[in-house]
Amino acid sequence: MNGLLPGVPLVTLITFLPLAGALALLFVKPGSDRALRLLALAVSFATLALSLGLFLGFDGASGLPEFVERASWLGRGLDYHVGVDGLSLSLVLLAALLTPIALLSSWRSVDRRVKEFSAFMLLLETGMIGVFVSLNLFLFYVFWEAMLIPMYFLIGIWGGRRRAYATMKFVLFTMSGSLLMLVGIFAIQAANFRATGAYSLTIADLAAAPFAPGLQTWLFLAFGLAFAVKVPLFPLHTWLPDAHVEAPTAASVLLAAVLLKMGAYGFVRLGLPLFPQAAAAFAPALSVLAVIGVVYGGLMALVQKDMKSLVAYSSVSHMGLIMLAVFSLNFEATEGALFQMINHGLSTGALFLCVGILYERTGTRVIADHGGAAARMPIFAGLFLASMLSSAGLPGLNGFAGEILCFFGIFRTSRVMAVLGVSTVILSAVYLLGLYRRVMHGPLKAPGDRRLCDLDRRELAMLVPIVVLMVFLGLFPGTVLRKMDASVSRYLDSLRKQAPVALTSRAPARPPLWSARPAEPER
Amino acid sequence: MDRLFWLVPLVPGASALLLMLFGRRYSRRAAAWQACGAVLVSFVLAAAAFARLAGGQAALEKVLPVWISAGSFEASFSLAFDRLAAVMALVVTGVGSLVHVYSTSYMADDKAPTRYFAFLNLFTFFMLVLVLASDIVLMFVGWEGVGLCSYLLIGFWFDRPAAARAGLKAFVVNRVGDAAFLVGLLVLLTQVGSSSFAAINGAARDGRLSAGLATLAAILLFAGATGKSAQIPLHVWLPDAMEGPTPVSALIHAATMVTAGVYLVCRLNGLFAASPAASAVVAWVGAVTAAAAAALALVQNDIKRVLAYSTISQIGYMFIGCGVGATAAGLFHLTTHAFFKSLLFLAAGSVIHALGGEQDMRRMGGLRRRLPLTFPAFLVGALAISGVPFLSGFFSKDAILTSAFAGGHYVIYGLGLAAAVLTAFYMFRLVYLTFYGPARMEPEAGLHIHESPRAMTVPLIILAVLAAVSGLVGLRVLPGEPADLFGRFLEQVLPRTGRYPAPPTEIALILAATASALLGIGLAFLFYRRSPGLPARLAGRFPGAYRLLVNGYYVDAAYDAVVVRPLVKGAGWTYRNLDLRLIDGALNGSAAGADLAGRGLSAVQSGLVRDYALAFLLGTVIFLGVVLL
User: Fold this and answer.
1) B618 partner at 20 to 30 Å CA-CA among A169, B145, B199, B287?
2) pLDDT number for residue A87
3) What integer pLDDT is reported at residue A519 of this predicted model?
4) ipTM of predicted complex
5) What residues of chain A lie within 8 A of the CB of B72, using their CB?
6) Given a cut of 60, is residue A181 above it in pLDDT?
7) Distances from the Cα of B448 to the Cαs of B362, B373, B443, B445, in angstroms?
8) Helix (H) or strand (E) segment spanning residue B61
């Protein structure tokens, strides 16, 4: 399976290299901030290079996890079991891409406790990648929790004025979610033992033999809550704007670009496959919450006065669309949702970087304090606009390719939901370009301010790769989509097997869709 | 060379990309030359491909690899140069070349010429993608891309708040239409199972697409067209779009982009033909817009706003043609309109240029002799749009109105005829106010009046010739003949479904059209030349009607009061009460509890990182213990 580097445990290497880097940082002489930063950056680049190798080496024809590594660990089913499949592959790459970019963004803005900061960033990377590659439920949970700790510190120590409140809210929301998930894991362990007489927390095994419907409902609710908080699904979203506003740029970028995806990924990896009947039963209700989130997030973004909370609410809206697509339970929508997770990661990550760039220069994120910056920062203006257009789904950029697949899939399941979801096309144009007009256009505010200079090389190195990827994925979405095909088919097949009735969507003229494109060779 | 037709969009696209990437390294001249050259090359390639079609070939096609596909969704980069695309591509690259050349002089003193030419090239690229796409999803790339360029160019002078606002308004109003477009697209894609125009039109023709769904999809897509083509009720963005540089108004907001909606209806003529209801909607929206917008043009004082309302009105005519089954006539009017309206805009630009930026006609007058080239050019355009016999507008407008009459759409015909009187009237009001009478400009501006340089006047002359003679391709030698040259060329792509009237009726209709043009011009002469006090007296006599027109039927005010303000207010209220008070309040227990917890936490916050780490380690150990038990 591992044809690229035979014998090298690539996934383990990618997952734990950042952790090793974090440990190495502890031995760097304190005070040498530059060395600390460079070391952290080098480690994250190495991780990126390995992830790229993983992506290129991934075959994807079988739909099964590849690069699998398994070892018994703590016993009683608590195995070390990792690998990537079509559902997780691109998310690993996303996390590996954005970590070095986030580190670059903090090059100047973070100037105290650089050692701890860099170490927490790398720890966070290990946590994020670990969640995506875990094939064992318990391992998933460990990484899920491990990822919260560095994020907690990043906001709590390097955050803004109200960081204490934001951190508390973040912890309360996410912890209460994961606590229920933990209880759920105990219940699964117990139920599984009762049924089979053996301990196993291998996700694939659990998905193959689902639990009794009653238990499924409770388990789905327990897991679903943890994931819904993370997405965040309306009305569990209020921690997000606060966390974003207070978080340092680097943490905001990773929070929006990768951490929110964990919620959606959790549903696809665990929530739906492990509890298919319950998921199918709840799908309509969750779709309603998701579509409320689309409209509600968009409307709230309209009236924000802080740039960061505006972008945060735009995430609520966009993640709502992704969840709506996930709950539409057909091939196009699922693939669209997975692809859109990558796109949203890129565009929202870029938007937070842009806000951070403006903040570093002006010391304010209040929209009304800005104006006319495009005159002084033409290059930045172009990249900022491109990021907005990607987020607003302009055809030709990546956001459109994902959005149209989501719309198409949602429409096949429910026309009403699709029509409501399409409202994002109008809302996103209003709040994003409205922000752009107020901040970048109009007469220049503070014209004497010499700090309002265009991007330097470091900032270009942060934004240009993302914008290039937006264009590339907009024109060649197949690069990512073809890696997903077989796994998505397999995922929907297993859902259909478990809950055939609930998954019969109102499919028009064409044949049923969840297996519409089985493991097709790459074109 | 015709094999290379797919380079038609790519050449300006590549030029735009270079200008955007290396903007600062370009000199003023180099940027202008490259941009003009790229569009000219594109024009030559389009002409070569056109020659091939004129020789009898049906279409040139280029299928590039799949673009987006998943499951039963598939969209591809496929381009086709058929006869419909050929006409449009020639208009876009032809008028586009002239506007680019004109711009080299008009924008010579601007701060950011490279950015300007980059956007203009980018626009040409997206417009040509829109025109050549044979896949509706790919067309949507061009569709939204030209919207983006329109946004960028309306707001080109973005430090002016009005320009920035107008650009945003244009984009948002267009997006409202595009949302409807998207839903229509979803209906078609799920029902037809293919995104190619051929498949969609085919499915509509042979009934695989049910009549109800065809109507639904057609009306939704037409709603998108009303956004792009500034038809009622989404016309509100176009008058404001005049904040952009005048050559942009000529190319984007008169000749090409705003007619994309008409082009869409032409492209989907099979779909619209399958739905009489949708066709009726198209015709009625066109007719009402033609008349209502022409009336608004009567009271404008800004020379460009007159032309903007005129454009809205003229596009209404094109939709009448498409709606009554004379799609080729609609496209014919699109073509002649592209010539005479871009001529009018560029000539108006020449006037504005001569007056140092003045756009208010109340401060113009008597420019006839001071602008010896601009004036006759403008006059040709004014005569053409008014429908004076044997100029281009006469033929194309007549082709539409006779088809409407022959199809029994008498009210639509009546609206069109009334709009024709109004058109001639407002156009000659503009001519008299600008070029005749006493000079009313500021003394300072009056000193510098000069005819524009050759880069501006040569395009004017070329367009004036086209505006004068291009109607001849639509001439039917004898009334009652099956089709004109233009219609015959397009017969394969745009089959005519409407009828022609009997020859005696047709002669009567031609006379009526001629009379209405002359009536409008005569009235304008009476009002603005013979007794110039008359307009003010009339406005005083009917103040309500006058205010209604000056305020554009209060459409903007209504949108503001009914949609924009309630939405913003409601969102603000919801944010404060639902998000901050209810949800947060409930989840925090109470405001006091949250406060307390916040303070408590901030006390812990001052501690060392070590403490946190210890706490978490402890938690993890306990937790592991529980799991392993």
Assistant:
1) A169
2) 94
3) 38
4) 0.90
5) 331-332, 510, 513, 516
6) yes
7) 18, 17, 9, 6
8) strand B60-70
Q: Which of residues 8-67 of B touch A (CB under 8 A)?
A: 20, 23, 65-67
Contact B587/A at CB under 8 A? yes
pLDDT(A495) > 90: no
Pairwise CA distance, residues A266 & B211, whole Å: 43
Separation of alpha carbons B489 and A451, rounded Å: 61
What is the per-residue pLDDT across B46-81, written as a single tens digit (0 to 9) for each? 999 999 888 888 888 888 788 998 988 999 999 999
Give the pLDDT of residue A3: 52
Chain A, 151-170: which have a CB under 8 Å from a chain B CB? 152-153, 156-157, 163-165, 167-169
Output DSSP code: residue A453: -
Residues 192-231 of A with CB under 8 A from B: none
pLDDT for residue B116 is more than 90:
yes
CA atoms within 13 A on the CB side of A110: 28
Contacts of B574 in chain A (CB under 8 A): 296, 299-300
A509 touching B, CB under 8 A? yes
Q: Where are the domains of chain A?
A: 10-503
Asked if the Cβ–Cβ distance from B574 to A408 is below 8 Å, we say: no
Picking from A254, A262, A42, the residue whose alpha carbon sits closest to that of residue A145 is A262
Nearest to B345 by CA among B251, B484, B410: B251
Q: What is the mean pLDDT of chain B?
A: 88
Chain A residue numbers touching B183 (CB-CB < 8 A): 418-419, 422
In this predicted structure, the answer to whether residue A72 has a pLDDT above a threshold of 90 is: no
> CB distance B165–A74 less than 8 Å?
no
- CB neighbours of residue A67 within 10 Å: 25
CB contact B629 to A (< 8 Å): no
Judge: A516–B571 Cβ closer than 8 Å, yes or no.
no
Q: What is the pLDDT of residues B142-198, one digit of tens each?
A: 999 999 999 999 999 999 999 999 999 999 999 999 999 999 999 999 999 899 999
Q: Which of B457, B115, B544, B86 is nearest to A385 (CA)?
A: B115
For residue B127, name the pLDDT band (cuts at 50, 70, 90).
Answer: very high
Q: Position B433: which residue type?
A: L
How close does chain B come to A299, measured CA to CA in Å?
Answer: 6
DSSP tag of B478: S
> What does the pLDDT read at residue B244?
92
List the single residue in B66, B609, B628 with the smallest CB-CB distance to A74: B628
Q: Average pLDDT in the A185-212 region?
A: 85
Q: Report the pLDDT value the prediction gives residue A286, as an integer from 0 to 100.
A: 93
Half-sphere exposure of B231 (CA within 13 A, CB side): 29
| A25 interaction partners in chain B (CB closer than 8 Å) | none
What pLDDT does residue B480 have?
Answer: 55
Contact B598 A164 (CB under 8 A): yes
pLDDT tops 80 at residue A511: no
DSSP B497: -
Q: Which residues of A471-505 are buried (b: 16+ CB within 10 A; e: fewer)?
A: eebbbbbbebbbbbbbbbbbbbebbbebbeebbeb
Probe site for chain A from B187, B627, B628, B629 (most A CB atoms < 10 A): B627
Nearest to A302 among B73, B75, B568 (CB): B568
Q: Taken in order A365, A367, A369, A370, is the CA torsion positive or negative?
A: positive
> Closest approach of chain B CAs to the CA of A344, in angstroms?
17
CB-based contact, B612 to chain A, within 8 Å? yes
Residue A517 predicted with pLDDT over 80: no
Residue A29 DSSP code: P
Please, are residues A83 and A66 in contact by the beta-carbon 8 Å criterion? yes
Residues 289-318 of B with CB under 8 A from A: none
Q: What are phi and psi of B396, to 5 degrees?
A: -75, -40
The one-letter amino acid at B37: G
